[in-house]
Amino acid sequence: MKITRIEPIPINVPLKKGLTTKTAHGEHIDSPYVLVRVHTDEGLIGLGEATVAPRWSGETSVGCVEALRNFLGPAICGEDPTRVSLVRQKMDRVLKLNPFTKAAVEMALWDLAGKAAGVPVYQLLGGLLHDEVPIKMVVGAFGIDKACSLSERFLDWGVKCLKVKVGLDPAGDLDRVKAVRELAGPGIPIGIDANCGWNAAQARRMLARLEELDILFAEQPVGVHDPATMADVRRSTTIPIMADESIFTLNDAFHLTRHHAADILSVYPGKHGGVQATLEIGHVARAAGIVCAMGSNLELGVGTAAMLHLAVAEPSIDSETYPADLLGPLYHDADMITEPLSIGPVTAKPPSGPGLGVELDEDQLARYRTDT
């Protein structure tokens, strides 16, 4: 089997009314992403998804499309798509960084490999460790009334774990988390995510005050440039520290674990450049004696399917302790696939069909694509 063509499809899918989310990076209202079809000479087509976001990775929809057409496509056409390691090397030789763009191609390769073998991707990753994984829902950094309204909405669905966004204003952050804790009661695990929004002094003060609220984890309490700073913050609190924005590459994983800067590494294929790179980071975490959690960039159906296959197969991902962010399709007006994924309110299950187990919905594609 040989790759014959890379087909990028730019789309823009709004988030559902009332379910936009707000973080220290800004408000997420719509998702200008790129879907990818990898065509082969045997008629099989692999699917991928690039959840590009300028303020997150520096990648844009326009840049992603051009990178796929002018760099990655020419570099890998003619290659066997099941030789994932070789194709990754070829992509890295012609284009530096751009992990979300490369991840879209790489997850399409896994989709093709699974389709060619007639098995789900999780079978290629070693088989099921878990039939399903617990998930959580995210409450944006809104005012108390809206944050509580969202929390109540999720709890009424039956959600069993929440993550509250902080990192904008320490006083407002504390009030928001206290209000959600009071609403949810003691039986609902609650994590927080500062998205780099606090400096080290603020983080130490805030985590000391939040300890009494029984916080499950504190995600990226400080910025990304100095693992030693996050290590100092980690030593100051009993709340487990989760790294997210500071863990993009395998080298990042090495430095974070070497400095003992985190208890948990937030991982997902888009951020790391694909499924295989995520597995590699999981190996570093296991060697360092810590765990990973499945994070998110609010993926649609294809990207979430890839995350699900990883979450049920990779031993380093501890969704039982730190429920996964397998939630993107629940926030969007459309998921871009023909059959909805089995997500929520408590757990998520991977598709069981060959490859990623999903197919593009042509009607949704016609409605949300932006290149026509």
Explain what you see.
It is a single chain. This protein has helices at residues 54-57, 61-76, 84-94, 99-117, 121-124, 144-157, 170-184, 200-210, 227-235, 250-258, 269-272, 275-288, 301-313, 328-331, 362-368; strands spanning 3-10, 13-14, 21-23, 26-28, 30-31, 34-40, 45-50, 133-134, 137-139, 162-165, 190-193, 215-219, 241-243, 264-267, 291-294, 342-343, 347-349. With 372 residues, it is an alpha/beta fold. Strand 11 (190-193), helix 8 and strand 12 (215-219) form a beta-alpha-beta unit.
Q: Order of strands across the widest beta sheet?
A: 9-10-11-12-13-14-15
Count of separate DSSP helical elements: 15
Q: Could you tell me the number of beta strands?
A: 17
Sheet-strand content, in percent, reads 15-25%
Structural class: alpha/beta
How far apart the termini lie comes to 31 Å
Helix content: 40-55%
Radius of gyration: 20 Å
Integer average pLDDT: 97
Largest sheet geometry: 7 strands, parallel
C-alpha geometry = globular
Low-confidence stretches: none
The gist of it:
By secondary structure, the protein is of the alpha/beta class. The protein has helices spanning 54-57, 61-76, 84-94, 99-117, 121-124, 144-157, 170-184, 200-210, 227-235, 250-258, 269-272, 275-288, 301-313, 328-331, 362-368, and strands spanning 3-10, 13-14, 21-23, 26-28, 30-31, 34-40, 45-50, 133-134, 137-139, 162-165, 190-193, 215-219, 241-243, 264-267, 291-294, 342-343, 347-349.
